[in-house]
Design goal:
mainly alpha
Length: 89
């Protein structure tokens, strides 16, 4: 029984020692994911803005599509910003 307790205690100590490294790896991964999402989103938002600035030459359906693209891209940007805020906690 004592051997089992000591073995479990040793495993817990080892796990506790690894936690900071695992937390750092998680933070790095999330930062990279956020960056990889931001890059194409910037392009998408830019093109959506271009379409919206030329709305006079678009049909109703095309205007609706441009607005939808812009809205969805903005929502994704907000999610990425929220992810960044969570990473700081």
């Amino acid at each position: 029984m004592q051997d089992s307790i000591e073995r479990t205690e040793g495993e817990l100590r080892l796990s506790n020692q690894r936690l900071p490294d695992m937390s750092e790896s998680k933070s790095q991964f999330l930062a990279e994911v956020a960056h990889e999402f931001k890059t194409p989103l910037t392009v998408i938002i830019g093109y959506a803005n271009m379409l919206r600035s030329d709305e006079d030459n678009l049909g109703d359906e095309q205007r609706s599509f441009a607005r939808s693209i812009e809205k969805s891209a903005s929502q994704l940007t907000t999610l990425i910003q929220d992810l960044g805020a969570i990473m700081k906690i």
